[in-house]
Amino acid sequence: MNNLELGRADLLPGAQLIGEQWRQASDGRRLDVSNPADGRVFASVPDGSAADARAAVDAASAAFASWRATPAKQRAAILKRWNDLIVAHQEDLGRLISREQGKPLAEGKGEVLYAASYVEWFAEEATRANGDVIPAPVPGRRMFALKEPVGVVAAITPWNFPAAMIARKIAPALAAGCTVVCKPAEDTPLTSLALVRLAQEAGVPGGVINIVTASRERTPEVVDVWLGDSRVRKITFTGSTPVGKHLARRSADTLKKLSLELGGNAPFIVFDDADLDAAVEGVMAAKFRNGGQTCVCPNRIYVQDSVHDAFVDKLAARVGALKVGPATDPASQIGPMINERAVSKIERHVQDAVARGARVVVGGRRLQGADLASGNYFAPTVLVAATADMECSIEETFGPVAPVTRFVTEAEAVAAANDTAFGLAAYFYSTDARRIWRVSEALEAGIVGVNEGALAAEAAPFGGVKESGYGREGSVHGLDDYLHTKYVCQGQL
Ligand code: SIN
């Protein structure tokens, strides 16, 4: 199976971790993993079952008492070792990410450090889960608010950042004293297994992290077990809004705590007082990272009338020069999309936009060729004359397509930006200090980028409003999502 030329073959365990043991699926079924660049199967993992999901909760539940009682400093030391191991294996992990997810190797290696930054951050936060001593309103009492781990956490992660999303969920859970059952996306299970292998090596005790890999068909039976089990006290999920709503509905019976990082439909506004070159670079960073397959990608670009044409010219020149190719080619800046379904959706959005009056300035089609064997490639695209009724304005395209709309007034741009059910990220470029505060406050989003396209950082709270979900990842708030507050009142003093 080690045809990836990894430095360490054991980073591909080909098994799922339940308790102390790397195991096959209860009925031996396997799930093939293919390379989105050429469509070829290059590895396989267990196709986990309901029985495996139950065994994972049994193990996580059994491990909880001793893990929560482990001093925070010790938990922090284990997380620090995990961080160090992730950084030390940047090359192998980067290759795994690129191979199963398709992003160019430099980006894959960048994601490894991004993932590690969350592990390091939460290693440090583990020792700061402080409670409060509350001044009592009556004599003879002492009042305290204690922070306690919520219990067993089920983490369900997406394919677009196979390392970072696992790290962003498991690290705060462990820092808080929770134990975890995890199901990575069916397209990208390998990176998560490698990370869990390194966590084990770092000293995470058996049962504290359990991972079940499952195919698209078997995912519902695995997740259903976790949703129905009252020992699972929290679900943390990154993925689509319909799935997030399903998880919220099904968590109601056992009233689980939820963190839902769901779809975005990010607006990106360029005002006429903006530094246009900086705004173009902002779109390049935010829109074309990971081939446009991020929840925080600008999906709708609004440009003020007087700078519209100059902006589009500059953007089209940059986008037209992007090099598309397989992750293995060091020159590639945009890799393949994750699968055929993803490319079909992008194609549908572009065709719908054109049918409704948009014009393709650059790109606009699938790419084929000898080095683009899988057919999962789409040309980086700029559209103009995008309107609110187009599919690309209503839902995330999740691909390298930048639809541009002309606007006249600030009020018009802000109203258009907020005219969506979603509210994850929003961006704008302006040099007017008063406008900057006015628009930052008016945008309905959990994350706002002002004159900046690269926003995510381990020290910052990441999450949405409206139908983009709730809960925050990263920052002090990211730890709090795995804790509850217990009030202790001592009387008769
Ligand atoms: C996501 O697409 O869900 C995460 C993007 C990021 O971490 O910047």
Q: Pick out the low-confidence regions.
A: none
What is the CA-atom radius of gyration, in angstroms? 23 Å
Amount of helix: 25-40%
Major sheet: size, sense and barrel closure? 7 strands, mixed
Give the neighbour order of strands across the main sheet.
14-17-18-13-12-19-20
Which cofactors or ions or other ligands sit in this model?
Answer: succinic acid
Mean pLDDT score, rounded? 97
> What is the 3D shape?
globular
Into which percentage range does the β-strand content fall? 15-25%
The count of DSSP E runs of length 2 or more, i.e. the number of strands, is 22
SSE-based structural type = alpha/beta
Separation, N- and C-terminal Cα atoms: 66 Å
Number of helical elements: 15
Keywords for this structure?
493 residues, alpha/beta, seven-stranded mixed β-sheet, six-stranded mixed β-sheet, 15 helices, 22 strands, binds succinic acid
3D architecture notes:
With 493 residues, the chain is α/β, with parallel strands linked by helices. The chain is 39% helix and 21% strand. The protein is globular and about 70 Å long. The structure holds succinic acid.
